């Protein structure tokens, strides 16, 4: 198995100092492993090395937002994705990755989640999984990817966009009977259920900030954007500006992932206040806000949020 790599940062993000991923081996299948528990990522990578030696582990992610960013940069064909993670959960991340990828969800046993996966013919592993169960998933993935590549070669391209469960469903799978769009509906319903079952207080409702001699309680819904430097984070909301000591990473874990997105290493924006996004050079962009003169830069590592699948 190849080593674990993280994606390169662009010039604006040089302070992150992460190594570049290894060059893609011609013909190799690349995978991304996503779990907030390092030991579980290592455990899965170890078993995959035994069951699928030629699989390239292109990277690892610790949460849903990081997974979406890494997916856009590395373009793996397979993603092993934990369902329950802080901030953006695995199902929300999968929906943002689009339909052109093989997803295997990894979850603790929960009847509602397993039922949803089976309804959508979505592959999943229940923790703690064993080598036999993982081997079944690997066999399905290899068949699907081989068939997909065969069809792509015959068509001279990728052809039609496929479902998360694969181009060719296993015999007897309900996937073949699902009308277009139903799979995403299953994931949307499950994502909503996961949010409803999230522990109380997991999402930020207020930002506490010092404004002069006062402590201001800023409603999160009124925040336009956050911009961070080395020590402080600037909060810009409809009523003014303030500085807080929370980092961008800490904020991301508590913000609603469908509303607040990271557009730069140092910037989070509230999509409700975005008027338009203008493409820039070298796969960058600028965000224009409603009723504001300033613009926010979007680095190439985050511009995928504004692409259409």
CATH topology category name of the largest domain: Rossmann fold
- The global form is globular
Instruction: Give me the Rg, rounded.
Output: 20 Å
How do the strands of the widest beta sheet line up side by side?
Answer: 2-1-3-4-5
* The CATH C-level class name of the largest domain: Alpha Beta
Overall domain count: 2
CATH architecture of the largest domain: 3-Layer(aba) Sandwich
Strand content: 25-35%
**Count of β-strands:** 15
Task: List SSEs in N-to-C order.
Answer: EHEHEHEHEHHEEEEEHEEEEE
DSSP summary: helix tally: 7
The structure class reads alpha/beta
Mean pLDDT: 79
Distance between the termini: 31 Å
- The proportion of residues forming helix, as a percent range, comes to 25-40%
Major pleated sheet? 5 strands, parallel
Uncertain residue ranges: 1-20, 157-181
CATH homologous superfamily grouping of the largest domain: Response regulator
């Amino acid at each position: 198995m190849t080593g674990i790599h993280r994606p390169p940062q662009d010039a604006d993000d040089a302070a992150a100092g992460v190594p570049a991923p290894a060059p893609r081996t011609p013909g190799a299948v690349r995978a991304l492993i996503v779990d907030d528990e390092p030991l579980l990522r290592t455990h899965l990578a170890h078993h995959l090395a035994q069951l699928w030696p030629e699989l390239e582990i292109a990277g690892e992610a610790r949460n849903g937002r990081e997974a979406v960013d890494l997916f856009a940069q590395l373009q793996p064909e397979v993603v092993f994705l934990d369902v329950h993670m802080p901030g953006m959960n695995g199902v929300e991340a999968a929906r943002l990755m689009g339909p052109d990828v093989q997803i295997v969800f990894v979850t603790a046993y929960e009847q509602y989640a397993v039922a949803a996966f089976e309804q959508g013919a979505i592959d999943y592993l229940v923790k703690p999984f064993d080598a036999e169960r993982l081997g079944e998933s690997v066999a399905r993935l290899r068949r699907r990817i081989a068939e997909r590549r065969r069809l792509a070669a015959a068509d001279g391209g990728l052809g039609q966009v496929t479902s998360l469960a694969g181009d060719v469903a296993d015999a007897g799978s309900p996937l073949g009977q699902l009308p277009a769009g139903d799979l995403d509906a299953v994931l949307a319903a499950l994502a909503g259920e996961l949010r409803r079952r999230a522990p109380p207080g997991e999402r930020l409702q207020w930002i506490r900030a010092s404004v002069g001699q006062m402590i201001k309680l800023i409603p999160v819904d009124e925040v336009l954007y956050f911009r961070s430097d080395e020590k402080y984070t600037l909060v810009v909301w409809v009523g003014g500006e303030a500085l807080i000591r929370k980092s961008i990473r800490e904020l991301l874990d508590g913000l609603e992932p469908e509303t607040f997105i990271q557009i730069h290493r140092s910037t989070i924006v509230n999509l409700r206040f975005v008027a338009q996004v203008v493409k820039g050079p070298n796969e960058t962009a600028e965000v224009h806000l409603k009723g504001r003169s300033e613009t926010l830069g979007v680095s190439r590592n985050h511009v995928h949020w504004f692409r259409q699948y």
